[in-house]
Amino acid sequence: MRALLVPVGADWYAVAMSSVREVLSRPRPTAVPTTPAAVLGLFNLRGEIVPLFDTAALLGLGSTPDGPYAAVVLTTLGPAGLVATGVPESVELGEPVSRPETSSGLGCYAVGSRLATLLDVDALLMPGHREVRSS
Q1: 48-83 pLDDT, tens per residue?
Q2: Which residue, 15, 21, 30, 61, could crosslink 56 as a Cys pair with Cβ 3.0–4.6 Å?
Q3: What is the pTM of this model?
C-alpha cells in the first residue's frame, strides 16, 4: 500500500495515500477562540477553509504547533491539515510488523530502519477523540 510517511517529533506515522490530498509548507492558520488545544486554527487553501491540527496533541505526544509542514488529508468530515515536524515522504508499506499502541492506528510497519504507525484519519479526527497512550 502506498502511504505518506509523516514525522511527528521523534515518531513516524503513515497515512494511506488514498486519504492524502497534498502536502503544504508553512500553512498560516488563523486562531479560532474556544477550540480545543489540538486545533491550531483555520487556513485558506485556494479559497477553501481547512482546519489545522496539532498532530502530536491528537496522538497524546505533547504539542508541536510550529511544524514546518502540513499534510492535508481527506476525511468524512472534510479536508483537514495535520502538522508534520519534518518533510513527509511517499513510501510503500509492506506487511504490518505489529499491532499499533494507539486506538487510531491500523498497524505498525517497518520502513527502512524506521517504524511507522498507519493512522485511521477518521478515527483520529473524530469529535471527542481522546488518545490514550499505553505505558
Answers
A1: 999 999 999 999 999 987 889 999 999 999 999 999
A2: 61
A3: 0.88
Beta bridge partners of 24: 70
Max intra-chain CA distance, the chain: 43
Q: Are 27 and 70 in contact (CB under 8 A)?
A: yes
B/e letters for 58-72, b = 16+ CB within 10 Å, e = fewer, are bbebeebbebebbbb
**Sign (positive/negative) of CA torsion 39, 3, 23, 77?**
negative
CB 109 within 8 A of CB 92: no
Only one residue has cell 477553501, namely: 48
Residue 5, all three cell numbers? 510517511
